[in-house]
């Protein structure tokens, strides 16, 4: 990632002149285009675009770019998001007992492979405190019982708000979030489900897969919506299995996929490369 | 494949001495083991095995091997199948309009990659007559309408019986077979479904996949049972897709998978490498 | 593919305003952008772009577009190619004995999956005449011996010139072309080599791979240059193998890859989606 | 893995009765076969086998099994290895600066996915001390300079001997071992090379791959022999790349492969599932 760039994500009804208009804005204000990628959804006639340009000689101060784009936004009826590469996203990681995804994210983060700030780790189990300490990330333990679930979630939301968290990563967090939580972080909660959705929704997907006798198993990272395991899919990976693999081997093979799809989805999100439209994603390269 | 070998497929309750007993039988009768592969389903305590041995010095005539194995079969409570490599399976291919799987099978067959006799091609469309002629395979046209479906199937079954067909390959045959047909060819009808089952059962799986916004699509070859798209899975393959792929590209990418899984499943079946147990398959290497 | 569009392929030194300038040209002349994809090679500071726009309301006649772009081309020092979707590329397929790639291309072409005209099939064996007839493609037999090789090639080039062939597809053609031939069709000869290059250059790559004991085998489609198997790579695919696969199974598995990479490379070429720069390719989506 | 089983690895000239003889030995001594897998290398007429049986009712004490097998070994001219599942292999991990493979191995080991004892970590850099401490594994720092290389290696060998290390894992250890070291641990040093060998041998394989413009990159785990990157291949994995991936992205994608192939190779080795023959491996399932 560039360290002084602006990133624009656009969705708009497709019309002649869109690319011209937006690249004219950047060019005439001395912006050097670093990346531009577009996609036209022909079925819905929607134009999607991601632009990134160098700000070093850009004549509009960053704080005024949003305002400067207001006319274009209005005229072309654009749904627009503006980000700056020097503002790292603040994320929280939620995890239950299984720590393979957590560890993978923390290790990649430590090595500079994930450009975000991890504000804290939240868990309903205490076992991951030690790993959090090792990676110097604050850890909060929220035990969840049926009777305290709603209350605990309110507390979690309070902590997230206080820490300005904008992205929630469910790294094998085995609790279903309430609609209130999901609404608060719409398109900003990434979950990993251990099957190739839409197959094997819900609990114990590896067991479901094993019983069905499939020859490939998969893993899916997706944004969380109110319907369980039904949100927009960001990333999927699969691996071959055979009758020789028992349930335990399904789980071991699957873990590798879970790490890959979750880390990939988080990377795409924090690089501002994902647009969501009608429960589907556009994931730019 | 060896050209003068016996092949034994066994499923039995797992007990001490199984491998010893059966290899003793082969060894003591001067059989040279060419291939032996076993698998234990620990959950169900079932032992599966495939053995292949050279018959050239075997002292029991082929016609008496089944009888000679009767005691072992009884004592060990074995479910057993015996085949000889010089008896090529006789197959019929069913196809509708789309001919990519048909062509792939015919071309591989012509090149000696599929050791079976293709007794005939049956279609509910006439367009594939020309290809059948090119590959010198008899072709029968059975137009299917709601009102003649059962009757036509009876005719088809009569033709299959008359030609001693033992394997039915549905190479994109877009008609659901009746239970009578399925019963007649239990575990001997191979279908290709154009999704990674159990996702996207039924009609238009690519359209379903496209609407769901998946990032991988797949294809599945399976034995046909009375429940649609629910039979034992033999082979599955997947390919990555993205928002850049429209429905037509899903179809084109999928076609390649369909060919691969169907040809692979047919090959395994005619090499006598598949055992079915409780709606799952053991597919030997 | 659109049926009335212009396609522009551009390579140029990267400078501020490139995208703006070219999209302005299209927009101001009433072209509706159908596809735009760019890539910046940061190491070499080269900008690559593919643009496609609808010609139905474009105010410049097709015959004058090249001229109209001359100033932009000069000012920005662009290497530019212009194509029209209604001009289908004319291709010749060269093949030796093995016909799996040939068949795959002909079948896809027949089904409308490859938008090109196949002007003729050239072979140093006669066996593929019958298939050529079946698909209604002219066939020419050029037996090649050491002593007549150069002469035969001259004859081949003459036929290609006479038929206005612009793309040569080597679908498992087991003859090394002379530099004269390669020069005549620079970046317009696509070959399939049956290994994941640069491993196993030259003869018998499957045997080389088998002897080395690799656990994956691959296939590569590339443009032909004067150095054997060293040209710009367009497409590669691999498949897992194990000790259980003998050389024959390497070959069978490999054939599937060969078909996939060659068909894919041809498709990309005829859709004008490939740019070659310094022995590497940019392959647009 | 079973916790009280014997494992037999056999390589022998293929002869009638081999499987019978060895399964008779196990059966007649009250061993319950848990796993049996064989492979015949037809080219070299060599028979490979892995057998595992439950020792709980086996009538020969573990300490006498080797002796009890001596006649069979001699008569059939078998190359034989005998292991017991309760004897966990002792391994040492060598690592330089990059810690992704190290971390992956340590984390899997901690979670019980790799049944071995990690006796120590050896590094020519100090940075991994902290991780070693976190996972409670002894760490030894051996700085390597041209002038002290041989001496340091002698010291390393002394430590390995003292700790009874039987397996050396080079988890991105950027030093070439001397022939003395390699001889001492013949077929017991596993290295990960960051390319799909035999392509891109030696230094900077990702850079080599990037320059060649390949469309897939790979990673290889192999036993170390005296010739650099030429030893028997155990595991290989690849991932697609495109012109959009710069060198840094090659490295990031490659890291995931390196972890997968190395962990897989180590797992196979410690489960006694690998046989080496003529610079190739048989890797049982």
Helix and strand topology:
Four copies of one chain form a homotetramer.
Chain A: E1 5-13, H1 18-28, E2 32-41, E3 46-54, H2 62-68, H3 70-75, E4 79-84, E5 90-95, H4 100-110, E6 117-123, H5 129-134, E7 139-141, H6 149-162, E8 167-170, H7 179-184, E9 189-193, H8 205-212, E10 216-223, E11 233-240, H9 247-270, E12 274-277, E13 280-283
Parallel strand pairs in A: 5-6, 5-8, 6-7, 8-9
Antiparallel strand pairs in A: 1-3, 1-4, 2-3, 9-10, 10-11, 12-13
How would you explain this protein's 3D organization?
Four copies of one chain form a homotetramer. With 285 residues, chain A is α/β, with parallel strands linked by helices. Chain A folds into two domains: 5-84, ACT domain (Alpha-Beta Plaits, 2-Layer Sandwich), CATH 3.30.70; 90-283, 3-Layer(aba) Sandwich (Rossmann fold). Chain A is built from nine helices and 13 strands. Chain A has helices at residues 18-28, 62-68, 70-75, 100-110, 129-134, 149-162, 179-184, 205-212, 247-270; strands at 5-13, 32-41, 46-54, 79-84, 90-95, 117-123, 139-141, 167-170, 189-193, 216-223, 233-240, 274-277, 280-283. In chain A, strands 7-6-5-8-9-10-11 form a seven-stranded mixed beta sheet. In chain A, strands 2-3-1-4 form a four-stranded antiparallel beta sheet, covered by helices on one side. A two-stranded antiparallel sheet of chain A has the order 12-13. In chain A, helix 7 links the parallel strand 8 and strand 9. In chain A, helix 4 (100-110) runs parallel beside helix 9 (247-270). Chain A is globular. The relative contact order of chain A is 0.13. The model of chain A has no long low-confidence stretch (mean pLDDT 96). Chains in contact: A-B, A-C, A-D, B-C, B-D, C-D. At the A-B interface, strand 10, strand 11 and strand 13 of A face strand 10, strand 11 and strand 13 of B.
């Amino acid at each position: 990632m560039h360290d002084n760039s602006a990133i624009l994500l656009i969705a708009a009804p497709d019309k002649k002149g869109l690319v011209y208009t937006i690249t004219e804005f950047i060019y005439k204000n001395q912006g050097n285009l670093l990346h531009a990628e577009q996609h036209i959804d022909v079925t819905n006639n929607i134009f999607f675009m991601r632009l990134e340009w160098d700000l070093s000689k850009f004549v509009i101060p960053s704080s005024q770019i949003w305002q400067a784009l207001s006319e274009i936004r209005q005229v072309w009826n654009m749904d627009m998001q503006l980000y700056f590469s020097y503002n790292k996203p603040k994320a929280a990681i939620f995890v239950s007992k299984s720590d393979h995804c957590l560890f993978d994210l923390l290790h990649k983060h430590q090595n500079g492979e994930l450009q975000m700030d991890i504000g804290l780790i939240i868990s309903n189990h205490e076992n991951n405190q030690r790993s959090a300490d090792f990676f110097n990330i604050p850890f909060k333990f929220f035990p969840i019982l049926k009777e305290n679930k709603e209350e605990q979630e309110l507390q979690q939301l309070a902590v997230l708000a206080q820490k300005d968290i904008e992205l929630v990563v469910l790294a094998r967090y085995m609790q279903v979030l309430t609609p209130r939580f999901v609404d608060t972080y719409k398109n900003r909660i990434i979950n990993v489900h251990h099957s190739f959705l839409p197959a094997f929704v819900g609990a114990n997907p590896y067991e479901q897969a094993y019983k069905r006798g499939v020859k490939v198993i998969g893993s899916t990272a997706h944004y969380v919506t109110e319907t369980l395991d039904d949100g927009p899919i960001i990333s999927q990976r699969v691996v071959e299995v055979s009758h020789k693999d028992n349930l335990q081997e399904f789980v071991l093979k699957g873990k590798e996929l879970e790490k890959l799809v979750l880390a990939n989805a988080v990377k795409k999100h924090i690089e501002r490369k994902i647009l969501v439209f009608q429960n589907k994603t556009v994931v730019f390269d």
